[in-house]
Automatic annotation (TrEMBL):
Name of the protein described by the UniProt record: Uncharacterized protein
One Pfam family per UniProt: PNK3P
SUPFAM superfamilies: HAD-like
Organism: Triparma retinervis
Taxonomy, superkingdom: Eukaryota
Amino acid sequence: MHQSYLGRNPSLPPDRPPQIAVTRYKVVLPSGVTGWVSASSRIADDRYDITRFVPQPTWRYHPSLKLLERTDPRMKGEGGQRGEKKIAAFDLDGTLQVTKLGTPPYLATSTSEFRPYSDSVTSKIRSLHSDGYRVVIFSNQGGLGDKVEGGKADVVRGRLDELGGVWGVPFTAFVATGRSGSKGGGKCRKPEKGMWEWFVEEHNRGVRPDSGDSFFVGDAAGRQGDHGDCDVEFAKRVGIKFFTPEEYFGPEGR
């Protein structure tokens, strides 16, 4: 999502219609942060000047860990900033999003097949950010393996980037792409705590989150009808509180 700031030139008559063409340029700062700047190409006047720089999220894949990560340079803890003690962590499938038709998410071929788990998701995420929580997503996507470009991988990345646009809140996401028992794949796959440890050491400046203020929300809670218990076990292993989506967001679809 690219944003711009339009600043009006007060010396020009207000009745003259603005006529500008906008060109976006991708830039890399000395710190290594990649982003976009927008510059106005004057057609009729100098009424508008586009000046805002908007850093864009970065995706990286770690093949030895079978871990795909999404980082946002605006997030505290990234780019040399301080780590956070309050972590609001979430699963993706069945927690933040569900498929519109109730089909398994791994069968989806487009981001348009998903909807928010409930109407309260966006407001809850924004409130957490305002209250000083760092928002982090931990998701198992074993169907990807090492295929982190194109196809299903593009759907997963697209879903997360679209959430960033809807929420307007910076967040970090970790996607475990290996299957249980696969070589190197089980280390970061929930309920193992590899994703959490990687986050703490590599993306939170080594700061250990406060167990009383941090929590994880996920749908795999070992209940009758659940597809497993990896989410509740993940929370136990990393030592933070656990909530189901129903407990945290309320009933699905409302």
